[in-house]
Amino acid sequence: MRVNRWTETHSFNISWVDMNIEAAYSRWSAIYDTNTNRTRDLEGAVAHDFLSSHKFTDALEMGCGTGKNTAWLQTKCDRVISVDLTQAMLDIAATKVNSPHVTFVKADMVETPWTSFVTSKVDLVTFSLVLEHVQDLNVVFEQADRVLKAGGRVYVGELHPMKQITGTKARFESAATGRVEEVTCYTHHTSDFVGAAMARGWTLERLDERFDQDDRTQLPRILGLLFRKGC
């Protein structure tokens, strides 16, 4: 698999700013790894749990961000393509992972054909806290299906829709402005993920809901899904 290396909890008593996705994550990148973020941390644990027993040849990591999962993912795969919309996030990820087997790509997962940076099929596609920024799941699942080998797997780790409908979403406090910057998000229910996957002939291998401090009396924070493409 050969690709081109790129060249190019929320209780704030302050005002809100709605930003486009790329601009928001560019500003967030400076503090993304260091600010308190239970969603980021719990999703990382879910990804490890879902994928640790598997070994992959070629993986495509969509929405790699600052590389929070990339360093670990490279230990499970022979080669990894890690894709993000935001150059500032990719720059940070590249400081964490220095491997000839990991390639970082700047691309819009909705607008850019994935075959432009994936030239041979992969056996794993991952989505971590990124599909909430996609309005139509079918668009990205169709792209994933085109580059996924028969028998390949798709991992999804997202903020739980029950959290979303009660007001939790991707947002951060800007150190520069002192305002909360809220990222454009869309709510996808569990049936939306499963329906879009089944429309491509994928089967659901695993579904899990994860809670803060494993307290199941509260709303779940993370929805984890693992699909497999038919052989």
What do you see in this structure?
GO terms for molecular function: S-adenosylmethionine-dependent methyltransferase activity. Pfam families: Methyltransf_11. This is Methyltransferase type 11 domain-containing protein. The chain has seven helices and ten strands. The strands form two sheets. A seven-stranded mixed β-sheet has the order 4-3-2-5-6-10-9, with helices on both faces. The protein has a three-stranded mixed β-sheet with strand order 1-8-7. Helix 3 links the parallel strand 2 and strand 3. The two termini are 20 Å apart. The N terminus is likely disordered.
Provide the CATH architecture.
3-Layer(aba) Sandwich
CATH topology: Rossmann fold
Give the CATH class: Alpha Beta
How many domains would you count in the coordinates? 1
User: Over the alpha carbons, how many angstroms does the gyration radius reach?
Assistant: 17 Å
Stretches where pLDDT is under 50 for at least 5 consecutive residues are 1-19
